[in-house]
Fold this sequence. Notes:
By secondary structure, this protein is α/β, with parallel strands linked by helices. It has helices at about 45-55, 80-90, 105-115, 120-130, 150-160, 180-195; strands at about 1-15, 20-30, 35-40, 60-65, 70-75, 90, 165-170, 200-205, 215-220, 220-230.
Amino acid sequence: MAVVEIQNVSQTFGHGELAVQALKPTSLSIEAGELVALLGPSGSGKSTLLLAISLIQPPTTGRIAIDGQVLFDDGPTGIDVRAFRRQKIGFIFQQHNLIPFLTALENVALMLQLNGVGRRESNRRAMEVLGYLEIAHRADSLPAQMSGGEQQRVAIGRALANEPALILADEPTAALDTERGTKVMAMLRKIARERRSAVIAVTHDHRMIAGFDTVYHLDDGRLTQVERSAEGAEPG
Ligand SMILES: Nc1ncnc2c1ncn2[C@@H]1O[C@H](COP(=O)(O)OP(=O)(O)OP(=O)(O)O)[C@@H](O)[C@H]1O
C-alpha cells in the first residue's frame, strides 16, 4: 500500500500580480519501505513539498493521503492533522533540534510520552531505539556532550520512536562530514528496509544519492525527473 499518495498538489504564495507558484501541480506515490530523495536547487520547492505533505503548510490545491487517510482534498477533510502527524510522521531536521537539557534517552522518550505512552514504557522503548541506532552507550549524555553524528542519530531515534509510517528529513546530512553523513544515510536505509517506514529526505547532497530507491528532481516548482534504482524497494 502507498504510504504517501499526493495528486495535483500545488502551492501558491501571495495574490494577484505578486503570486508565486512555488509548487506546480505535483502527483506522486511512495510505498512502505521506500527511501526517497528530493533533489533540486535552492528555491526549487523542496521544502514547500515536504511542508505540504505533512500539512504543516497546507497546499493551495490537491489531494493528500497518508497511510490510507485522506488529510487534504482541495481543503481540510476534518481529520485532526496535529494528532495524526504526532502518531504517523517522524521529522528529522538539518540541525538536530534536541532539547539541550534532556539526555539522549529523555529526548527520545519524550516523543513517546507526548503520544500517551507511560514513563517506564517510554524509557524502555527509547532505550531499544537507541540500541537499534547503535548509540545506547550515549543514553545518559546531554546533546552538548555528543558529536554531531551522534546527535543526529538521537534525532533519528526521536523521529523513529513512534514507529511512524512516514519519516520526513530535511537535509539530514548537511551538517555532517562524509563519514558521518554516510552513517546517517545507512541508518535511514535500515529504517526503511527493516521497519518499512517510507522515508523522504530533502537533500543537496549528491554524495548520498547512491543509497536511495527513488530520486525526484525538482526545478522551479516542477517535478522534472524521477530516477529509480535498479534494486528498488523490496516488496514487503
Ligand atoms: N511562506 C512563503 N511565502 C512566500 N514565498 C515562499 C514561502 N515559502 C517559500 N516561498 C518561495 O517558494 C519557492 C520555493 O521555496 P522552497 O523553500 O520550497 O525551496 P527549497 O527548494 O526548499 O530551497 P532551499 O534548498 O533553499 O531550502 C521560493 O521561491 C521561495 O522564495
